[in-house]
Amino acid sequence: VFIYGNASMSAKLRFYAQFIITAEGVIATILFCILFAFLFIVRFDKGSGAYRVFLLVSSIHGFLLSTMLIPLNFLHLIRDGDFINIALGFGTDFIPLEYFNIPFLIFTNLVSYSWELVPTASVLQFIALTKPKMSLFNRLCLAYLWPAIAFVFNYLYVPYFIPAPAYREVLARSARDFYEINDHDRIYVYGFPFWPKTENGYISAIDVALKFAAPTYSISYALFLLNVYRIRQQLTVNGIRLSEKTLRLQRQFFRTQLLQGLSPLAVLSVPFSIFFTVTLLGYDLNRFSVIYSFAIWFTPIVQALVMLSYIKTTLNKQMSGST
């Protein structure tokens, strides 16, 4: 149908958007598989156990997110005052609607951890510089304290993405009409209106923004930036107390976690800016909604590349005999 040009613009947009989203999921999955292999090949320096755990946890998170993206193919649509998540992938053919909420909630939690895990590495490095004798268990407990607290936010407010049954029909009809999806083709929709509506129990984007997205996002990056500032102080003022090898390792990890934290910030700034702007001003993005999808699903690729860069540098030093 695409060869002969008989498909409408909306149908073509859906086809190519799904293709790109699937490609993003596949590429990220491959990168994380490579990362897993390197994590078991590369020999880390003594005392780097906490960093290795961080890399492993982050890799598992990214791997789960990217592998779930492939069969679910979540595409976004901002139209008629609604924010709609549309599951279009082949996975919808195997999961009945009454059970689909479970993978959706898991997937949405994984998405939120794209920014909620950001401060973890900085906490680990700050502890390594200021309390080097602290046990590995205590380091990890402190580092993952905020992600554990953030889970409470997720548990309370991620279900806001599940619309009321009557409103789900409204969202489904809007998605089918826009992308010209036949009624016999199965799709699952989630979302909410940007402003409160009785049909959805008055739950809207304002609730999601003020109770979930804004608090977790701002706290995550506030912790990250605070720790980055304190780590920089430690490396510049107190770095003379460290051995040359340890100082080199800490600076290398500092650069890595800067990229690990700031790269998602740059990528996620696109969908977050879109979300908050539309919430405040009430714009309909229609076809441009795919920008939101492309940006947010590109995040796992960025995170995998940053971690691979760190692993590659460590491996190169081992091979050259400089570590």
Automatic annotation (TrEMBL):
Superkingdom, natural source: Eukaryota
Keyword Membrane: yes
Pfam families, per the entry: 7TM_GPCR_Str
InterPro entries to which the protein is assigned, alphabetical: 7TM_GPCR_serpentine_rcpt_Str
Keywords assigned by UniProt, alphabetized: Membrane, Transmembrane, Transmembrane helix
Residue spans crossing the bilayer: 15-41, 53-74, 94-115, 136-157, 202-226, 258-283, 289-311
Signal peptide from the UniProt entry: none
PANTHER family: 7-TRANSMEMBRANE DOMAIN RECEPTOR C.ELEGANS (PTHR22943), SEVEN TM RECEPTOR (PTHR22943:SF248)
Record's protein name: G protein-coupled receptor
Organism: Pristionchus entomophagus
Taxonomic lineage: Eukaryota, Metazoa, Ecdysozoa, Nematoda, Chromadorea
